[in-house]
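To whoever is on call:

I kicked off a structure prediction for a single chain this morning and the downstream step that reads the tokens threw a length-mismatch warning. I double-checked the sequence; it's 93 residues and nothing unusual in it as far as I can see. Pasting both halves so you can look.
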Amino acid sequence: PNEAWRKDPMDPRWKGRQFDSAFTETAEDIKLSDLPRPGFLPPEFWDAFYEKGYFLVLAQAVIGGVVFFAIFNYLPFVLNGAILAFIGKPGGP
């Protein structure tokens, strides 16, 4: 049997074919609002923090600040040691 059509994703035999996957078992999408949330925080917090994306803004700002701090405070010591080792000079901080 000629199986060359299986390698061609545009072959008409693939059209309309359903594949089972963990993400396609049901027709409904998972929504953030359906996930369990602690009751001690008001719904407005969850709406602002997750649904509007402020969580991503906060996470990126914190990670960016830590990386910025690390680059200017610790990277010079690492680069200085590596450069001095490469050129064969003793020293360092």
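Update from on-call: the warning came from a stale cache, not from the record. Cleared it. Sanity check on the structure: Helices lie at 43-51, 54-87.
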